[in-house]
Amino acid sequence: MNNSLFSKVVEYWRGVYRGVKSVLGSCVTALPYLFNIRSGDLRKEVTEQYPDPISSRTADDLPPRTRGLLFNDIEKCTGCRECERVCPARCITVDAEPEADPAKMWVSVFDIDFSRCVFCGLCVETCQPASLAHTRQYEGAVYMLPDLVASFGRGHVTAEQREKWDAWRKTKEAEEAGV
Question: Shortest CA distance to 139 belongs to which of 57, 53, 46?
Fold first, then answer.
């Protein structure tokens, strides 16, 4: 029993010794920086100013398969919501309404929340009309979180637009009935 107490005390003092040795080693490493010793060697500036026109990356410097920010060509988009379904981060919101031609959809809302996007590319792969694509733009810094939501939709259909569609439908039906 006396032997186990002695070994515990020895182990305790070994731990204290290792701790003091570690702290002193850290101080020896930090002292030249604190007292500006050999300032030419230690104080080299390694931080680059942003944007630095000489060393900053451009779109041409990026690898060919870079997944930058997403872009949706709303004219090609059919509003099928496949991208919204496949997105693991749930960052895409699509709202579509029937257009004047029943075969087409009016994509009123197509929002991408880049604060949630993980840039996996699943949405781009599943987009049948190929309206969704990754751009070469990778800088998306903003000051306010709501500014990270990109809106590509056409806006909700107005009553005036519905009247135009109804008039178009009536003329289309009249042409088909007269033929």
Answer: 57
